[in-house]
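Appendix B, record 7
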Amino acid sequence: MRAKLSRIKKDIETLATYTSTPSSGVTRLPFTPEDKKAREYIKEQMINSGLKVRVDGVGTIIGRREGTKPNAPVIMLGSHYDSVKNGGAFDGTAGLVAALEVVRVLNSEDITTKYPIEVVAMNDEEGVRFKGGMLSSRAIIGEVTDEELDTSIDEDGISIKQAMVEFGIKPNLHEAKYQKGAIKAFMELHIEQGPILEANKKEIGIVKSIVGLSTYKVNMVGRAGHAGTTPMDLRVDALLAASKAIIELNTIVKETGGDTVGTVGELQVQPSVANVIPGTV
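Structure tokens (predicted):
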């Protein structure tokens, strides 16, 4: 029973072309033209693999292969196909393509499984556009609310719900939720996003735990002033304060040790011009 590298390669390379940043990595945010192109390709491959395809109430694409046990819980395979900005071609996509290839191999070997298999292509897992993330997976377990769909907005003020409707998806959280016990197992192949396996010359590892994420938005408030005429001892520089806080965070995390990590990945400096002391960060 062998997977075909040529099929896997073709799928990954094709999906990588659906990006808003050609030649600068993959940028495929949810409910965008790039998303639509990727969705059509994914659905086509699912249908060609003999899967019965449906789209749930948050836009997750699901391809089902029946098993021999009636009404049995599903074995779920897959990953996300949205991306960060200027991301890699394998992030998420590799897991989705691997799931498709599992089905293709089962078909080619004429193997019928006891449990049904569902290949899932999850969307808005990265959380780049609406600053939330894991939309598909949280909807599956019932942890997305209508309020979130209304209040989570992108940088243009468009909510998730508005984006869905304009994209042609009718939001339905009840439809997206799986009842307890409906999923027997979920398996996802994913690239390593850290250096540990590579450093240890290991090709594959099994995940036993995952980082617990807490995100904070901090406002540093100083006083804007002319950079050329305000004396140093009279300045209240918000960016300087933010810089000290970032360094202190790094120190605290290192002293804590273990697997603890901490990152400041985004700064918004106002008024963000060269000749004015930052008033807020």
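Remarks on this record: Strands lie at 52-55, 61-65, 74-80, 117-122, 183-187, 225-226, 276-277. The longest strand covers residues 74-80.
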